[in-house]
Amino acid sequence: MSASVLKLEKRLGISLPADYRSFLVAHRDRLLDHARVFLPPRSGVVDSLLTADELLKNDDRKQIGIPEKSLMCIGGNLLGGYLYTKVSSDALGQIHYMERYEFREQFPSFSAFLDDTQPEAA
Predict the structure, then answer these.
(1) 10-38 pLDDT, tens per residue?
(2) Cβ atoms 105, 94 nearer than 8 A
(3) Three-point CA angle 83, 100, 55, nearest 5°
(4) Which InterPro entries did the record assign (predicted)?
(5) What are the residue ranges of helices labelled H in 13-121?
(6) Do residues 36 and 118 lie in contact, with contact meaning Cβ atoms separated by under 8 Å?
(7) What gap in Å lies between CA 31 and CA 14, rounded to an integer?
(8) How many angstroms separate the CA atoms of 91 and 95, rounded?
(9) How many whole angstroms separate alpha carbon 83 and alpha carbon 45?
(10) Whether the Cβ atoms of residue 98 and residue 114 lie closer than 8 Å to each other
């Protein structure tokens, strides 16, 4: 397990869901090779997913997400879309997508987010 992931979990005071934890351990670069496009009827695109080190830096800067909603920003797109994961015991690991300051999509888990998106064609 990555030392950065363990440090992030310690700061958050939770164990991240296994699917997202596994992703963070393997994920080393913020920009994705291909953006993830939401499958219909959903709408959205994500072209970056933060690494554990970037999440820790955001926490150091007090820019981790939306604390009052227990949401940690884990990625987004260059046009201003943001991807969050729930980091409290209620709905832990739930994924939320926001555009123009409005929540647009929700997924029950990181795995469900990956299942309901596909890599953008090159």
Answers:
(1) 999 999 999 999 999 999 888 888 999 99
(2) no
(3) 30
(4) Knr4/Smi1-like_dom, Knr4/Smi1-like_sf
(5) 18-26, 52-60, 110-115
(6) yes
(7) 26
(8) 9
(9) 10
(10) no
CB contact at 8 A, 120 and 45: yes
Domains of the chain in start order, with CATH, are 3-119 (3.40.1580)
**Do residues 17 and 5 touch, judged by C-beta distance below 8 A?**
no
Contact 15, 105 (CB under 8 A): no
| Distances from the Cα of 62 to the Cα of 7, 9, 36, 111, angstroms | 16, 16, 27, 27
* 91-101 confidence digits (pLDDT tens): 999 999 999 99
Tokens linked to 18: 């296994």
Assigned token pair, 23:
């992703």
Residue with tokens 């739930």: 94
Cβ(99)–Cβ(80) under 8 Å?
yes
- Output the six-digit token pair for 62: 């007090």
